[in-house]
Amino acid sequence: MTTDSSVLSLVQAGVAWITLNRGPQRNALDIPTLKHLHTLLDAFNADPAVRVVVLTGNGRSFCAGADLAEWAEAEARGALETYGWTDTAHALMTRLHTLDKPTIAAINGTAVGAGMDLTLCCDLRIAAQSARFKAGYTSMAYSPDAGASWHLPRLIGSEQAKRLLFLDELWSADRALAAGLVGEVVADAQLHGHTTELAARLANGPTFAFAQTKTLIREGAERSLPEQLHAELAAGVLCGRSADGAEALRAAMEKRLPNFSGK
Questions:
Q1: Phi, psi of 77, rounded to the nearest 5 degrees
Q2: What is d(CA 79, CA 174) in angstroms, rounded to the nearest whole number?
């Protein structure tokens, strides 16, 4: 495990764990933390030994969003619009959303503002029973600035997105599950173990096919059906040429489970 003042990282059995580690600040995102997370994601995306990325937090909060102390300091020196948080956050959210490897948010506590938006950029979201979700923007007389206005309508529908954003309600894990904001809710004590099991399943899967599938889903919303079918054909050809594609066919013919290499 490598340790940073704001982030912990560990790669084990094909799974890269990224843990926000700013307990006194409730894992709030200042610019150095945003940049460090971006660097880790770039490295893990390029590392063939990494086949899944898990994002979680230490302590009682998953992430409290933007670091308000850094925000206030920038405002005090007249640099609120130029100090760089938004551009840095946008770059991180884009990197996480477009990562080739499957991503899991293991939400251990409150996820607010950009902290919630981090979870929305992940492919799968598992919430501990004690997790809470809050947009946090309009209470600060602010509009969404880290992807919530794009992700939420797609995940939970326009009206529910507006309810969460306009009223700035604090949603429980169960309400988030009912709305479709998360895919699973587990007991707090089971969060790590359950996430580990899911990550292991993905890490043993066909990583290249996962990447093609992610791209198809991400880009498909902007295509017509014929265009998407053409893209599926092209992706399928690439998958068929992959090492895992060949292994899957051999395993089927030999009536055994495939042993995917992720290539």
A1: -100, 10
A2: 40
Question: Is residue 158 one of the residues assigned to a domain?
Answer: yes
Same domain, yes or no, for 98 and 225? no
Residues 68 and 122 in one domain: yes
For residue 213, the enclosing domain spans 207-253
Q: Using CA of residue 10, residue 182, residue 260, residue 93, what is the dihedral sign?
A: negative
Summary mean pLDDT of the chain: 93
CATH number at residue 65: 3.90.226.10
Coil, strand or helix at 239:
helix
What does the pLDDT look like over 41-96, one tens digit per residue? 999 999 999 999 999 999 999 999 988 887 778 778 877 777 788 999 999 999 99
What was the pLDDT predicted at 3? 53
Return the number of other C-beta atoms located less than 10 Å from residue 120's C-beta.
Answer: 24
In sequence order, the 6+-apart residues with CB closer than 8 A to the CB of 65 are 28, 29, 112, 113, 114, 115, 116, 136
Exposure string of 135-148, with b = 16+ CB inside 10 Å and e = fewer, is bbbeeeeeebbbbb
174 shares its domain with 106: yes
Owner of token pair 């933007």: 66
Counted domains in the chain? 2
Angstrom distances, CA of residue 65 to CA of 31, 32, 38, 130, 206: 12, 14, 16, 18, 33
Whether 74 contacts 83, CB under 8 Å: yes
Q: Phi and psi at residue 57, in whole multiples of 5°?
A: -135, 155
